Amino acid sequence: MESFTYLTYEVRGDVAILGLNRPKKRNAISDAFVEELATLIRRAESEAKAGVIHGHGPHFCAGLDLAEHVKKTPFEGVHGSRRWHEVFGWIQKGKLPWFAALHGAVVGGGLELASSVQVRVADRSAFFGLPEGQRGIFVGGGASVRSAQLMGVARMQDMMLTGRTVDADTAERWNIVQYVVDEGAALDKAVELAAHAATNAEISNYAIINALPRIQDMGSDDGLFVESFIASFTATSPEAEERLNAFLNKKVGKVARPEG
Q: Tens-digit pLDDT profile for the chain (260 aa)?
Protein backbone atom coordinates (compact mmCIF):
# COMPACT_ATOMS: atom_id res chain seq x y z
CA MET A 1 0.00 0.00 0.00
CA GLU A 2 1.28 3.46 -0.95
CA SER A 3 0.43 6.44 1.25
CA PHE A 4 -0.01 9.97 -0.07
CA THR A 5 -1.08 13.18 1.64
CA TYR A 6 -4.81 12.43 1.69
CA LEU A 7 -5.25 8.93 0.29
CA THR A 8 -3.71 5.48 0.12
CA TYR A 9 -3.45 3.36 -3.01
CA GLU A 10 -2.94 -0.32 -3.68
CA VAL A 11 -3.74 -2.87 -6.35
CA ARG A 12 -4.99 -6.36 -5.50
CA GLY A 13 -5.09 -8.46 -8.64
CA ASP A 14 -7.18 -6.43 -11.09
CA VAL A 15 -8.70 -4.16 -8.42
CA ALA A 16 -7.34 -0.73 -7.45
CA ILE A 17 -8.19 0.27 -3.87
CA LEU A 18 -8.26 3.94 -2.91
CA GLY A 19 -8.41 4.74 0.81
CA LEU A 20 -9.51 8.14 2.12
CA ASN A 21 -6.89 8.86 4.75
CA ARG A 22 -7.64 11.91 6.89
CA PRO A 23 -9.07 10.05 9.90
CA LYS A 24 -8.48 12.92 12.34
CA LYS A 25 -10.66 15.09 10.07
CA ARG A 26 -13.18 12.25 9.54
CA ASN A 27 -11.83 12.14 5.97
CA ALA A 28 -13.25 15.57 5.17
CA ILE A 29 -12.80 16.56 1.54
CA SER A 30 -10.74 19.63 0.59
CA ASP A 31 -9.76 20.92 -2.84
CA ALA A 32 -6.28 19.39 -2.50
CA PHE A 33 -7.94 16.12 -1.49
CA VAL A 34 -9.97 16.20 -4.73
CA GLU A 35 -6.83 16.79 -6.80
CA GLU A 36 -5.08 13.81 -5.23
CA LEU A 37 -8.19 11.72 -5.83
CA ALA A 38 -8.15 12.81 -9.47
CA THR A 39 -4.54 11.68 -9.90
CA LEU A 40 -5.22 8.28 -8.37
CA ILE A 41 -8.39 7.70 -10.40
CA ARG A 42 -6.36 8.17 -13.58
CA ARG A 43 -3.65 5.90 -12.23
CA ALA A 44 -6.22 3.22 -11.41
CA GLU A 45 -7.58 3.41 -14.95
CA SER A 46 -4.14 2.50 -16.28
CA GLU A 47 -3.37 -0.26 -13.76
CA ALA A 48 -6.65 -2.02 -12.94
CA LYS A 49 -9.96 -3.26 -14.32
CA ALA A 50 -12.14 -2.19 -11.38
CA GLY A 51 -11.82 0.09 -8.36
CA VAL A 52 -12.88 0.35 -4.72
CA ILE A 53 -13.06 3.49 -2.56
CA HIS A 54 -13.11 3.18 1.23
CA GLY A 55 -12.25 5.23 4.29
CA HIS A 56 -9.54 4.73 6.91
CA GLY A 57 -10.47 5.28 10.54
CA PRO A 58 -13.94 5.25 12.13
CA HIS A 59 -15.72 6.90 9.18
CA PHE A 60 -15.94 6.76 5.42
CA CYS A 61 -16.25 10.54 4.99
CA ALA A 62 -17.99 13.25 6.97
CA GLY A 63 -18.15 15.64 4.02
CA LEU A 64 -16.76 18.98 3.00
CA ASP A 65 -13.82 20.56 4.80
CA LEU A 66 -15.82 23.52 6.12
CA ALA A 67 -12.74 25.36 7.39
CA GLU A 68 -11.57 25.72 3.80
CA HIS A 69 -15.03 26.40 2.39
CA VAL A 70 -15.82 29.47 4.52
CA LYS A 71 -12.73 31.27 3.19
CA LYS A 72 -13.80 31.10 -0.47
CA THR A 73 -15.32 33.86 -2.56
CA PRO A 74 -18.53 32.94 -4.45
CA PHE A 75 -16.57 32.62 -7.70
CA GLU A 76 -13.99 30.36 -6.05
CA GLY A 77 -16.84 28.30 -4.66
CA VAL A 78 -18.32 27.79 -8.13
CA HIS A 79 -14.98 26.66 -9.53
CA GLY A 80 -14.42 24.31 -6.59
CA SER A 81 -17.87 22.79 -7.00
CA ARG A 82 -17.37 22.30 -10.73
CA ARG A 83 -14.06 20.55 -10.10
CA TRP A 84 -15.80 18.13 -7.70
CA HIS A 85 -18.36 17.50 -10.45
CA GLU A 86 -15.63 16.81 -12.98
CA VAL A 87 -13.57 14.44 -10.83
CA PHE A 88 -16.56 12.57 -9.41
CA GLY A 89 -17.80 12.33 -13.00
CA TRP A 90 -14.66 10.38 -13.91
CA ILE A 91 -15.84 7.79 -11.38
CA GLN A 92 -19.46 7.81 -12.50
CA LYS A 93 -18.82 7.72 -16.25
CA GLY A 94 -15.22 6.65 -16.69
CA LYS A 95 -13.35 3.55 -17.77
CA LEU A 96 -13.68 1.40 -14.65
CA PRO A 97 -16.55 0.06 -12.56
CA TRP A 98 -16.19 1.58 -9.07
CA PHE A 99 -17.43 0.18 -5.77
CA ALA A 100 -17.64 1.97 -2.41
CA ALA A 101 -17.12 0.33 0.99
CA LEU A 102 -19.00 2.48 3.51
CA HIS A 103 -18.87 2.61 7.29
CA GLY A 104 -19.43 5.20 9.96
CA ALA A 105 -20.36 8.67 8.69
CA VAL A 106 -21.32 8.90 5.01
CA VAL A 107 -22.37 12.50 5.24
CA GLY A 108 -22.57 15.52 2.95
CA GLY A 109 -19.69 15.38 0.50
CA GLY A 110 -19.04 11.80 1.60
CA LEU A 111 -22.48 10.80 0.36
CA GLU A 112 -21.84 12.78 -2.83
CA LEU A 113 -18.64 10.82 -3.42
CA ALA A 114 -20.38 7.53 -2.64
CA SER A 115 -23.19 8.44 -5.04
CA SER A 116 -20.72 8.68 -7.92
CA VAL A 117 -19.71 5.00 -7.84
CA GLN A 118 -21.72 2.25 -9.51
CA VAL A 119 -22.19 -0.06 -6.50
CA ARG A 120 -22.24 0.77 -2.77
CA VAL A 121 -21.65 -1.67 0.10
CA ALA A 122 -22.41 -0.47 3.64
CA ASP A 123 -21.63 -2.14 6.92
CA ARG A 124 -24.07 -1.80 9.81
CA SER A 125 -22.11 1.04 11.42
CA ALA A 126 -22.80 3.30 8.43
CA PHE A 127 -25.15 6.27 8.67
CA PHE A 128 -26.11 8.72 5.97
CA GLY A 129 -26.98 12.40 6.06
CA LEU A 130 -27.06 15.67 4.15
CA PRO A 131 -26.69 18.39 6.83
CA GLU A 132 -26.19 21.29 4.43
CA GLY A 133 -29.48 22.91 5.43
CA GLN A 134 -28.35 23.12 9.06
CA ARG A 135 -24.99 24.58 7.94
CA GLY A 136 -26.65 27.33 5.92
CA ILE A 137 -25.27 25.98 2.63
CA PHE A 138 -26.37 23.75 -0.25
CA VAL A 139 -24.95 20.58 -1.75
CA GLY A 140 -22.17 21.31 -4.25
CA GLY A 141 -20.53 18.00 -5.07
CA GLY A 142 -23.24 16.52 -7.27
CA ALA A 143 -25.85 15.34 -4.75
CA SER A 144 -28.70 17.29 -6.35
CA VAL A 145 -28.30 15.02 -9.37
CA ARG A 146 -26.54 11.81 -8.30
CA SER A 147 -27.89 11.32 -4.77
CA ALA A 148 -31.36 12.49 -5.77
CA GLN A 149 -31.43 9.95 -8.59
CA LEU A 150 -30.66 7.19 -6.10
CA MET A 151 -33.11 8.01 -3.32
CA GLY A 152 -35.60 10.37 -4.99
CA VAL A 153 -36.10 14.09 -4.47
CA ALA A 154 -38.66 13.81 -1.64
CA ARG A 155 -36.35 11.73 0.57
CA MET A 156 -33.42 13.99 -0.17
CA GLN A 157 -35.49 17.07 0.73
CA ASP A 158 -36.45 15.37 3.98
CA MET A 159 -32.81 14.75 4.87
CA MET A 160 -31.74 18.28 3.98
CA LEU A 161 -34.66 20.10 5.60
CA THR A 162 -34.82 18.15 8.86
CA GLY A 163 -31.23 16.98 9.32
CA ARG A 164 -32.48 13.39 9.37
CA THR A 165 -29.85 10.66 9.23
CA VAL A 166 -30.61 7.10 8.17
CA ASP A 167 -28.98 3.79 8.99
CA ALA A 168 -27.65 1.20 6.56
CA ASP A 169 -30.87 -0.83 6.37
CA THR A 170 -32.91 2.26 5.59
CA ALA A 171 -30.30 3.32 3.04
CA GLU A 172 -30.71 -0.04 1.31
CA ARG A 173 -34.51 0.38 1.18
CA TRP A 174 -34.00 3.87 -0.24
CA ASN A 175 -31.58 2.58 -2.91
CA ILE A 176 -28.67 4.60 -1.54
CA VAL A 177 -26.75 1.33 -1.11
CA GLN A 178 -27.09 -2.06 -2.75
CA TYR A 179 -25.53 -4.30 -0.07
CA VAL A 180 -25.56 -4.27 3.74
CA VAL A 181 -23.00 -6.43 5.56
CA ASP A 182 -21.80 -6.98 9.11
CA GLU A 183 -19.69 -4.28 10.72
CA GLY A 184 -16.14 -4.37 9.41
CA ALA A 185 -16.98 -6.48 6.36
CA ALA A 186 -17.72 -3.77 3.76
CA LEU A 187 -14.23 -3.49 2.28
CA ASP A 188 -13.81 -7.23 1.75
CA LYS A 189 -17.25 -7.45 0.15
CA ALA A 190 -16.60 -4.46 -2.11
CA VAL A 191 -13.25 -5.91 -3.24
CA GLU A 192 -14.94 -9.26 -3.91
CA LEU A 193 -17.60 -7.61 -6.06
CA ALA A 194 -15.05 -5.46 -7.87
CA ALA A 195 -12.89 -8.50 -8.62
CA HIS A 196 -15.93 -10.23 -10.12
CA ALA A 197 -16.77 -7.18 -12.24
CA ALA A 198 -13.14 -7.08 -13.42
CA THR A 199 -13.67 -10.44 -15.12
CA ASN A 200 -16.39 -9.02 -17.39
CA ALA A 201 -15.67 -7.99 -20.95
CA GLU A 202 -14.14 -4.52 -20.85
CA ILE A 203 -16.49 -3.23 -23.54
CA SER A 204 -19.53 -4.53 -21.63
CA ASN A 205 -18.41 -2.80 -18.44
CA TYR A 206 -17.83 0.42 -20.34
CA ALA A 207 -21.32 0.25 -21.86
CA ILE A 208 -22.93 -0.50 -18.48
CA ILE A 209 -21.10 2.42 -16.85
CA ASN A 210 -21.60 4.95 -19.62
CA ALA A 211 -24.69 3.99 -21.63
CA LEU A 212 -27.17 3.21 -18.86
CA PRO A 213 -27.04 6.62 -17.10
CA ARG A 214 -27.28 8.46 -20.41
CA ILE A 215 -30.21 6.35 -21.59
CA GLN A 216 -32.03 7.19 -18.36
CA ASP A 217 -31.67 10.88 -19.22
CA MET A 218 -33.31 10.33 -22.64
CA GLY A 219 -36.89 9.94 -23.70
CA SER A 220 -37.95 6.29 -23.86
CA ASP A 221 -37.98 6.09 -27.67
CA ASP A 222 -34.52 7.67 -27.95
CA GLY A 223 -33.22 5.45 -25.17
CA LEU A 224 -34.41 2.28 -26.87
CA PHE A 225 -32.84 3.41 -30.14
CA VAL A 226 -29.47 3.97 -28.46
CA GLU A 227 -29.80 0.64 -26.64
CA SER A 228 -30.05 -1.17 -29.98
CA PHE A 229 -26.78 0.31 -31.18
CA ILE A 230 -24.95 -0.40 -27.91
CA ALA A 231 -26.24 -3.99 -27.87
CA SER A 232 -25.18 -4.59 -31.46
CA PHE A 233 -21.79 -2.95 -31.02
CA THR A 234 -20.89 -4.95 -27.92
CA ALA A 235 -22.19 -8.26 -29.31
CA THR A 236 -19.94 -8.06 -32.37
CA SER A 237 -16.71 -7.60 -30.41
CA PRO A 238 -14.17 -10.49 -30.55
CA GLU A 239 -14.42 -10.96 -26.79
CA ALA A 240 -18.21 -11.24 -26.93
CA GLU A 241 -17.98 -13.85 -29.68
CA GLU A 242 -15.49 -15.88 -27.61
CA ARG A 243 -17.62 -15.69 -24.46
CA LEU A 244 -20.88 -16.53 -26.27
CA ASN A 245 -19.30 -19.54 -27.94
CA ALA A 246 -17.96 -20.72 -24.59
CA PHE A 247 -21.49 -20.56 -23.20
CA LEU A 248 -22.99 -22.35 -26.22
CA ASN A 249 -20.34 -25.07 -25.92
CA LYS A 250 -21.19 -25.44 -22.20
CA LYS A 251 -17.72 -24.37 -21.09
CA VAL A 252 -19.22 -21.88 -18.62
CA GLY A 253 -22.11 -22.32 -16.23
CA LYS A 254 -25.65 -21.04 -16.56
CA VAL A 255 -27.11 -18.30 -14.40
CA ALA A 256 -27.73 -19.79 -10.95
CA ARG A 257 -30.48 -19.20 -8.44
CA PRO A 258 -29.50 -16.88 -5.58
CA GLU A 259 -28.44 -18.68 -2.42
CA GLY A 260 -31.07 -18.77 0.32
A: 999 999 999 999 999 999 999 999 999 999 999 999 999 999 999 999 999 999 999 999 998 887 776 678 888 889 989 999 999 999 999 999 999 999 999 999 999 999 999 999 999 999 999 998 888 889 999 999 999 999 999 999 999 999 999 999 999 999 999 999 999 999 999 999 999 999 999 999 999 999 999 999 999 999 999 999 999 888 887 776 666 556 556 665 665 677 76
Given CA atoms 208, 105, 7, 69 in this order, what sign does their dihedral have? positive
Q: Coil, helix or strand for 128?
A: strand
pTM listed for this prediction? 0.92
Give the span between the Cα atoms of 198 and 200, in whole angstroms.
Answer: 5
SS3 81: helix
List C-alpha distances in Å: 11 to 2, 51, 68, 135. 10, 9, 31, 38
In single-letter form, the type of residue at position 126 comes to: A
Q: Would you please indicate which residues are annotated as catalytic (active-site) residues?
A: 112, 132
Closest to 161 (Cα-Cα) out of 182, 120, 132, 190: 132
Residue 166's DSSP bridge partners are 128
